[in-house]
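Notes from the 1:1 (GR / supervisor)

We went over the backlog. Supervisor wanted to see one worked example end to end before approving the batch request, so GR pasted a single chain during the call. The sequence is below; no edits were made to it. Supervisor asked that the structure be written out right there so they could see what the output format looks like.
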Amino acid sequence: MSKKWMITLIFVTVLWMWIQPMASSPVYSQSGGHPDSQETEELIVGFRDDTSVDTAFDVHRKMGMQVVKSVRGPLRFDVVKVKGKTVEEAVQMYRRMPGVAYAEPNAVFRLQDYFPGYPVYPKDPYYITGQWGVKQVWADIAWDKARSSSRTVVAVLDSGVDDTHSELSGKVIKGYDYVNKDTNPMDDDTQFGGHGTQMAGIIAAQTDNLSGIAGMAPYAKILAIKVCGRDGTCSIANIAQGIQYAVNHGAGVINMSFYGYQSSTTLSNAVNYAYSKGVVMVASAGNDGKNRVTWPCYYSQVVCVGATDMDDKKASFSNYGIWVDVAAPGVDIETTRRGGGYGYASGTSPAAALVSGEAALLKAQGRSYANVISAITKTTDAVPGMGTYWRYGRINAYRAVQY
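Structure output shown during the call:
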């Protein structure tokens, strides 16, 4: 064999070895796994209503899986740790077992201000900045008609809430911590000043106290439910349990400032349960700047929120599309920080929190679920991208409380 042919053969062999792994890579669908979803070694196994505890235990025993947690009530599923096989293999095997309704990966979603270029900056708490986002949606004028009520509870499913902050003192109801499995959801340990504390401040910070900021629904209560860890990830199992807890403990509004690119039967069941009880759910669309659906935002029972800037234009980072319901300010939104003080938050997270605050104003007026949704969506202001970036426009709280 000539030297030229030998070099050619080596080149072709190396090229084949390089492309072969790509050729065998899995293809993801919108309803299944997605390369943007963090890998997991856990599985959620849902059982039919008529499946006994003994049958469920026997299924796990035959599968050789370790049960991490069992969730009962309106939601009925177990979380198991996969051993000895891949997650996909375990999914397929469980689906063939008696009494099993579904099986799916316990994927994780992410909190919404975790992206480059938009950190939260420290701010002197006594410096009056004007809170442009609150004014942009006419909330300060809406307060002449409605300021919410202490009977209105907004569940913040997030990384916890620092209830020692002066703006939140006496306003936070201690829920549950599904990350550390305890009754102290106040240890907001995420970076950037505490994500859950930021959302709580935007929704319901003290007003007329001559310092700091004003919340969208200043008289509302915050139900703190920790479903997201220090790294900003939130498992589907934790989120579903958080929704169930919120509904069962009197929440009228649920704020979910996180997203994932994977649908889930478990999450869908939880959303349907909240919807059946008339609870208004609000979620952020995501910060990847793409027209690509995210969950829980994509569920029809959830108000999906994109972000706008000070000029009422789509924020560069905001996900978009006709699947997004409304827009709200989401750039440099002043809010509370973990440990005291104030800062700025950018992302579809604060945008969703503003809409949750608006929903709390409407809930306090005694409105039904359907009427709250109509008031939020049908009183928006027409802004660039209406009908393209989002179905309706940018929220207007003043018009909503008069709807």
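Supervisor's comment: The chain is about 30% helix and 20% strand.
Batch request approved.
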